[in-house]
TrEMBL record:
It is found in: Golgi apparatus membrane. This is Golgi SNAP receptor complex member 1. Involved in transport from the ER to the Golgi apparatus as well as in intra-Golgi transport. It belongs to a super-family of proteins called t-SNAREs or soluble NSF (N-ethylmaleimide-sensitive factor) attachment protein receptor. May play a protective role against hydrogen peroxide induced cytotoxicity under glutathione depleted conditions in neuronal cells by regulating the intracellular ROS levels via inhibition of p38 MAPK (MAPK11, MAPK12, MAPK13 and MAPK14). Participates in docking and fusion stage of ER to cis-Golgi transport. Belongs to the GOSR1 family. One of its GO terms (cellular component) is Golgi membrane. Residues 23-44 are annotated as: Disordered. InterPro entries: Golgi_SNAP_su1. Keywords: Golgi apparatus, Membrane, Protein transport, Receptor, Transmembrane, Transmembrane helix, Transport. The keyword Protein transport applies.
Length: 154
């Protein structure tokens, strides 16, 4: 009963976690033309949400692992063969669910971290390009003059 409750709770959390990770990538891509501070602020709040949800899910996975271990101990100590087979089947089902949830969590987490790293790198590149274009106006003028002079000399 406890395992089913935790599995249901984990399922809901994993769906929310997946939605958060998906909204992070689509939200960041949609704001490419906005100022540098807006995506950083939204990204940091999403990063905090991500970290909070990741910790909660890891705790639930740990609890479910503990319950599965207790069920395994009970199954090994039970003496009735027919009851033991049914319990083994139930235990295996719960282990499979735990393994699926763990795999899904790690996959979603890895995808999110990859997206976040990519966005940080791309944001840094965009910021460098923008700062080069806007911050070096004098240098651009000099460069243009040198290029014009070079063309005239050629």
């Amino acid at each position: 009963k406890q395992a089913r409750q935790l599995e249901n709770e984990l399922d809901l959390k994993l769906v929310s976690f997946s939605k958060l990770c998906t909204s992070y990538s689509s939200g960041r891509d949609g704001r490419r033309d906005s100022s540098d501070t807006t995506p950083l602020l939204n990204g940091s709040s999403q990063d905090r949400m991500f970290e909070t949800m990741a910790v909660e899910i890891e705790q639930l996975l740990g609890k479910l692992t503990g319950i599965n271990d207790k069920m395994a101990e009970y199954t090994n100590s039970a003496g009735v063969p027919s009851l033991n087979a049914a319990l083994m089947h139930t235990l295996q089902r719960h282990r499979d669910i735990l393994q699926d949830y763990t795999h899904e969590f790690h996959k979603t987490k890895a995808n999110f971290l990859a997206i976040r790293e990519r966005e940080n790198l791309m944001g840094s590149v965009r910021k460098d390009i923008e700062s080069y274009k806007s911050g070096s106006g004098v240098n651009n003028r000099r460069t243009e003059l040198f290029l014009k002079e070079h063309e005239h000399l050629r």
